[in-house]
Structure formats: C-alpha cells, structure tokens
Design a protein that fits this description.
Strand content: 15-25%
Order of helices and strands: EHEHEHEHEHEHEHEHH
Number of helices: 9
CATH class: Alpha Beta
Structural class: alpha/beta
Bound molecules: zinc ion
CATH topology: TIM Barrel
Radius of gyration: 18 Å
Helix content: 40-55%
Largest sheet: 8 strands, parallel
Shape: globular
Amino acid sequence: MNYSFFDIHSHLHDKSFDEDRDYIIDDMKNKNIGTILVGSDITESKKAVALAELHDNLYATVGLHPTDNMEEIFHEHISEYKELLKSKKVVAIGECGLDYYRLQEDPGNPRAILDEKLRQKIIFDAQIKLALEVNKPLMVHGRPSKGKMDAYEDMLELLENYEEKHGEKLQGNAHFFVGNIEIAKRFIDIGFTMSFSGVITFASEYEEVVRFIPLEHIHAETDSPYATPVPNRGKRNDPRNVKDVVAKIAEIKGEAGEKVREQLLKNARRTFGI
Ligand SMILES: [Zn+2]
C-alpha cells in the first residue's frame, strides 16, 4: 500500500476502541494511514492478529510484555504464539523486553527484585530466540528505573551477545525510546532502530537524542491509546495522530517535513517489511 503515514506501534485492538474502532479504521484507510497492532500477552496478541487479518492497512506483533501481564507463563503458550506466527500479517515479535520502572526495594525480602529481574530476562530471552527462529524483528520495550539506564543496559547486554553470534539476523526496534545518547549508540551498533512517541511533542528532554540518532534509525509511533501528542493531549490517542510525531521529529532535526515523512515510511518498510 502507498501510505501517507505509518504508525509502527499502536494498540487499536485495545478495549478502549470498542465503540468506534471501525470508524477510525475507515478514516485511516481514507487517509492512507497504516499501523502495527502490538500484542502484549497471548490474549492481546490473538486480538491483534485477528484484527490485522481483516484490514489491509493493519499488521500485528505477537509477544509478552515484561510487566503488562505478570501472571502469564510465556513458556506455556509458545505453541499458541507459533500458531499466530503463521499469519502473514505478523511482522515482529513483542512487545518484549525489560521494565524496571516500578521495581521497589523490599527491605524484608532483598531477593525480590533479583527474582523479578530474572523472570523478565527469561521471558525476553525466549522471545529473542523465537524472533531468530522465525526470522522476524523484535519490538522491544525498555523502561529503566528512575534516573538510571539499568533496563536498557541489561537488555543490550543480552542483545549484543546474540548479535555476536547471529549478526544481521538479529533485528529490532526499541519502542518508546527514553534512553540517552550512549544507549542509542549501542542500539545503532547492533543495527536496531528506535521509535519516538507523542511524548516528544511536550517534553523537551528527548531533543538531544532525537537530534543525535540518524534519521534512518528512527520510527514514529503513537502507542495509542496512550501518550497523545500536542495538540490533542489529554484525549485518547489513535494512529491518525502519528503525523504530529513525524512533524515534531522534523522540527527537532531541522529537516523538511516531507523529507522526514518519506524517510520514516522507508524505514518502516525496511524494518517490518510492510
Ligand atoms: Zn505498546
């Protein structure tokens, strides 16, 4: 399809769109906007694939988020995930990764944090292996604890190890990127892209890193229904707002909007084969 804009990460299959999802998808088709519906556990992954199967401009990922559903035992569902992977509309594995944002020291149980980090690493590792097995990129979710880069450092340690063994076969995107320049460099070194959300339209702390990352390594996303960009901040987000993220990336980089729009479409085609 000849897209005008492409939102590489949304949750349009989320229940918050049950009332008007069909209207939004129709309007996206009229405006030539596409998106990837991101799975966060087995239930959401099934919903994402089923919806993507119905519409040309929708794609899906399947995987388990590090903290969205802490009850799910990934290994018990591997065959179901593999079944979903038979769909041609599945373009990546994830969202998977490490999320240390809400980890809290428990003085009575100093092992608790270690155990939780280990749980997340085991699930992430299994999904990296799956991505290599089926030859698909990873949709990576990383969120460090406040004031640190810890989750990114741990993820990169794992990813760099796999990259050493598998080279270019390992591909992926660090979604909702909140890392610094040092972290960005390491993702670029392993051939990964980084995507930015509506947050860059109202928080200035990402400008330096957006300016640093070569445009070829950047994607725009909405993470709908969350993270609504200016000027619609405060309302529910949807993939049509990705244009505001693209415009902000162009503004920060001091590049022509049209050039950035076209390059980001190229990037989406290259990374996800859409
Ligand atoms: Zn997401």
